[in-house]
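Subject: for your reference before the review

Hello V.,

The reviewers asked for a structural picture of the protein, and I figured it would be easier to keep everything in one thread rather than splitting it across files. Below is the amino acid sequence we used in the manuscript, unchanged from the supplementary table.
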Amino acid sequence: MATEIDFLRDQNHRLNEVLRRYQMENFSKCSSVQKAVLKGDGDDTLENTIVDQSFLAPLIIEYDKHLEELHRQLKYYQKHMGEMKLQLENVIKENERSELSRQKLHTQELLSQLEMANEKVVENEKLILEHQEKANRLQRRLSQAEQRAASASQQLSVITVQRRKAASMMNLENI
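And here is what came back from the structure prediction:
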């Protein structure tokens, strides 16, 4: 509401200025009543101005010109607003396409990285299986070697005992 009041005050001020200019330019053409009003000789300047309809014609013409100019400006701004709206929509669509393409590219990169990671997991699982099999083979060989060593140790103990017996017997025979 305050902006409307300011607008009306501004319009009133402009129109009064135009009216004064017109009156000063056409002072010689004015009637004696109009001249008295312009000089301030009348009872009430505002009342005399309103009563004398000849002052209103240039005011209305100027007001109409101003309204026409405002109408042209409004159409101009509406046209440009429409164009800007279309441009904005195009920019938004382009941004959306760019964002979608960026997201698609990022998704493809992530999928590629995931595939490589899966390949590495498969390779690592194969290596783990190979190492487990190798460890199992080595464990079996170690167990077999321990069994052979234990068997050999027993045989050696038996042979040692037999040799001692044989040596003792030989010593007994030699005696």
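For the response letter, the relevant points are probably these. The two ends are 145 Å apart (CA to CA). Residues 26 and 94 are 61 Å apart (CA to CA).

Happy to draft the paragraph if you're swamped.

O.
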